[in-house]
Amino acid sequence: MKTLLKSYILQVSRLNNWVGKNTAWLTTALVVLVCFDVTQRYIFKTTSVAFLDLEWHLFALVFLFCAGYTLRHDKHVRVDVFYIRMNARQKAWINLLGSIIFLIPFCVVVIYAAWKYTMVSYGYLEGSPDPGGLPARYIIKGAIPTGFVFLLLQAVALLFESMLAVLGEDLSSITARWEDNHDKAHPEDENAGKNKVFVVMRTLFILVGTLLALFSFLGIDLGISLPIKLFILIFISILAGFPVAFTLGGLSVLVGLAVFNLDFFYLLSLRIYGIMTNYVLLAVPLFVYMGIMLEKSGIAERLLETMALLFGRLRGGLAISVVVVGALLAASTGVVGATVITMGLISLPTMIRRNYSIELATGTIAASGTLGQIIPPSVVLVLLGSVLNVSVGDLFTAAFIPGFTLVALYFLYIVGFSLVRPQQAPAMPKEEVAAFRTKGMWKRVISAFVLPLLLIVSVLGSIFAGIASPTEAAAVGAMGATLLTLFQKKLSLPVLRQVMRSTSHISTMVFIILIGASAFSLVFRGLKGDDYIIELINSSNLDKYTFLALVMLIMFVAGFFIDFIEIIFIIVPVVVPTFQAMGLDLVWVGILMAMNLQTSFLTPPFGFALFYLKGVAPPEVKTGHLYRGIMPFVIIQLLLIAAVVFFPEMVTWLPQMLRGE
């Protein structure tokens, strides 16, 4: 029996690996296709509806057909506050129970609903509603159940794998997935199960979850409405460590089946199809592709080295260089985690070697690395634009002034620190700076800056000027990043494969979370949850600013435990109708949310940016250094958020000016 289970795991893993690796090539095809379409439109003044259809077809195939592949490599995001401290057997139990309770039911319901949806389309041979579009629309709709069949097969493999792991079976010949991704990355956690604080927290978590489930089963009224119970159960469940997308979707499906019926989830198929056809969301994989490709190009190393020598004789010059490079990378990629890690690997050892204060070094790197949350082309802003139903271009232009004001405030703090404690932010040795200035300084500066600046101008300039949509600009940026990597002699077939596979993993993770969040939103609204929240606010006499502050506080705290993608897809859709009813400017709200999330990711003790940096820091860098170093930057963030609240023109002026209002 065990041999049969191992054989199934191996064969299904091979199947999803083959499907995923081949589907990943579509990311490069998507970049080329959108760039070709842009060229046709703006140079030859022609376009093709069929090309536009093909673009979102490729986009949809990537995240649907790579879902099982991404699960196979454990790339679906988890809230690992507890999970990361578990031993291999405990993790296997989480994956076993999560597969049975959440993942498999979620897949089965989506397959049923999407198959029915596809058959309706096939029944009348649905084609494109636009003249000249691709025919046979039912084929791409059929990708929904097909993709979830691949995911279901891998879910069953995960179930079998977890069963064998619980029984103590050696699975090293099949996969070393969890050990590679968690245990080896965190060797200090091997004895975490014996930590008293961890045991107490985990026990409380299990107890609260069990009591809520028991009370719901027995029909005991706790004075909490069903939508709020669902919301609470979601947050408790995702803390267990099972992938967020499947916890969201699975729990929502179970509640939906209990309250409604199976046919209710036909509406989920409509929502998934809406995600597939959303042209704005197509920008996400393109920006991710651009960011990963730029990381491979080695541009950050050249920029930092050149900037450090350029500001060499200025005290704190190396720290200022880190901020400049962080801002440029943010304006080039919009990807936060990669920026923090890259900057940490490149600049932290150098700053420590140059006798910089460890606190100043770590604080500067972590803060600069998160500028991609707020400086366009931020992936956060792209997703917020979709959920808030506002123009991504407006969000990009609105973020421009707050983003670069933040950079200026970072500069001022570093200069002030250098004046007060000059020995902790020393200038570079005269000899190095002199050698730099006598050996083609400006040629080196220009060569380091011209290409990245051209990329930034081409991406952001085209959006701000209204020449191109964010999706078109993202494709041009992705192509530019590829050419830049080629120019730097860093592009090869293995590098291209890495970029495509990483893009497919990240994009799939984002959009499967969005599908899970759509299931949650569907059930939540079916239970009249949004009406309940509005009624609750009206009865409590909260004014719109108090309500906004409450939402910001919830998002800030949630940012300690879950990534921005889950926050945007879980919390924001619930409160958007209330914001609209209160008459708040959603562009202004979106910028406040992005700044709030950035601050949350920097704030001790749970800020994600601190975890990223600690993971690549030298041994002499302790957690206390990170906490002390980041707090001045957190205070700067909070002051700027307060300024944006009291002076909303910082956000609204530029978009209005560009629109001629």
TrEMBL record:
Task: Tell me where it resides.
Answer: Cell inner membrane
Q: Does the keyword Chaperone apply?
A: no
Main location class: membrane
Question: How is this protein situated with respect to the membrane?
Answer: Multi-pass membrane protein
Q: Membrane-spanning residues where? A: 24-44, 56-72, 93-115, 138-160, 204-224, 230-260, 272-294, 314-346, 358-375, 395-420, 445-465, 508-527, 547-574, 586-613, 625-647
UniProt domain TRAP C4-dicarboxylate transport system permease DctM subunit: residue ranges = 231-650
Q: Where is the Tripartite ATP-independent periplasmic transporters DctQ component domain?
A: 30-162
Q: Which InterPro entries match?
A: DctM, DctQ, TRAP_DctM
Task: Indicate whether Transmembrane helix appears among the record's keywords.
Answer: yes
One Pfam family this sequence matches = DctQ
Protein origin, superkingdom: Bacteria
Gene Ontology cellular component annotations, sorted alphabetically: plasma membrane
Sorted keywords for this record are:
Cell inner membrane, Cell membrane, Membrane, Transmembrane, Transmembrane helix, Transport
GO terms assigned for molecular function: transmembrane transporter activity
Tell me which PANTHER family the record gives: SIALIC ACID TRAP TRANSPORTER PERMEASE PROTEIN SIAT-RELATED, SLL1103 PROTEIN
Know the name of this protein? Membrane protein
Recorded source organism is Microscilla marina ATCC 23134
